[in-house]
Design a protein that fits this description.
single chain, about 375 residues, alpha/beta, DNA polymerase, domain 1, TIM Barrel, 2 domains, two-stranded antiparallel ribbon, 12 helices, 14 strands, elongated, tRNA processing, Aldolase_TIM
Length: about 375
């Protein structure tokens, strides 16, 4: 859970610590290929069996030991049990948009609940994944933030959300015929950069060529953050050409301190400076995420302030009509205010789009299904 201490400069230091819990079982997706080979050798098998297991999981999207006929019959079950244990159990699935948007509520081994969303478009298929069970950022308009942090997810638990979606697509379960996952966004439950090691491991499993990983283009991966400045700097050094999305939600510190409490540690200017440094290092355009909340952050003067802060940068502003949660006082902006906000940003020459509001009728905002359960 977040805790505060004071550093030598007298500024509060936010420490993000997940509660200590039993760990999920070791899974092939937690490991690099070299680590998989070592794990297989420890089980008394030839190291190349790890390559075969990896091919079944990442290429054939299978964990069925009986189908792994290239493995010795005597060791199939043991290898699968040791390196392909079940990680996610579906609890509930809801769909809309003719079945092309599917949200799944998963139960983890310890009972924790997380959500993922598959969204199929004519030109791409995107999976939105969770990186933590719950979230410790405490943003008041977010269902997950209000639930608090249960624990960090493992690399394999994150990856399995994408593999499950890939399985459904390959099997033709999603309208549009068999297909593949092309994009992954870390915008589900949790603050991805507060679970840094597991998230980077997941990004590498997703982007590594098969059979090491799923072989998704790094340019199709987006990692979001509310603005953990040191972690943004660390991400810039990873050599991964992925997109950084900064959940800003307010251009001024006074309001952002309320909407995004971590802003009391890293102010708007510090967060944006880290984002510009990321863009300079990776040559990747930064996405500024801004949830439009009626009469809270949707004033034209705030659009002007945001425009002045981000113009002439390698940036794109993604406005998000707030998906309200039951009983919340926060709701989406009026259409006229949304249009005015867009016009003011465009007047500053800032590229801006309004996000497709898929999933509203199926509790699409992260954390809503888990809260209902």
């Amino acid at each position: 859970m977040p805790s505060e201490a004071t550093n030598t400069a007298g500024r509060p230091t936010l420490t993000l610590v997940a509660p200590r819990r039993a760990k999920p079982a070791r899974h092939l997706a937690d490991l690099t290929m070299e680590e998989r080979r070592a794990a297989v050798a420890e089980l008394g098998e030839k190291p190349f069996r790890a390559d075969q297991l990896s091919r079944h999981y990442f290429e054939r999207l299978s964990v069925d030991a009986a189908s792994m006929t290239d493995l010795p019959a005597a060791s199939r079950e043991r290898l699968a049990a040791e390196l392909l244990p079940p990680l996610l159990t579906p609890v509930r699935e809801v769909a809309c948009d003719g079945g092309t948007t599917r949200k799944t509520l998963w139960r983890l081994f310890d009972g924790a609940l997380v959500e993922s969303v598959l969204m199929r478009y004519p030109d791409r298929t995107t999976v939105c994944v969770s990186s933590q069970a719950g979230c410790g950022m405490n943003c008041p308009f977010c269902a997950t933030g209000q639930a608090g942090l249960t624990r960090n997810m493992s690399t394999a638990e994150i990856v399995e959300q994408v593999v499950a979606a890939a399985r459904a697509l390959a099997a033709g379960e999603v309208p549009g015929g068999p297909g593949r996952v092309s994009n992954v966004v870390f915008m589900g439950m949790g603050e991805p950069l507060a679970n840094y090691k597991a998230v980077i491991g997941a990004v590498r499993r997703l982007t590594d060529p098969t059979p090491r990983g799923l072989g998704i283009s790094a340019r199709g991966i987006t990692v979001s953050t509310v603005g953990l400045v040191p972690a943004i700097g660390r991400l810039a050094e990873e050599g991964l050409p992925i997109t950084l999305a900064v959940s800003l939600h307010a251009p001024d510190d006074e309001l952002r301190d309320t909407l995004v409490p971590v802003n009391t540690r890293w102010k708007v200017a510090e967060v944006l400076d880290a984002a510009w440094a990321y863009a300079a290092k990776t040559k990747r355009r930064v996405s500024i995420e801004y949830a439009l909340i009626r009469d809270v952050n949707d004033q034209e003067w705030r659009a002007d302030l945001l425009g002045r802060l981000v113009r002439n940068r390698l940036v794109h502003v993604n406005l998000i009509p707030l998906n309200p949660t039951p009983g919340s006082k926060w709701t989406a902006s009026r259409p006229r205010d949304e249009r005015a906000f867009v016009r003011r940003l465009e007047a500053h020459g800032v590229p801006v789009t309004v996000r497709d509001t898929r999933g509203r009728e199926i509790d699409g905002a992260c954390g809503q299904l888990a809260a209902a359960e």
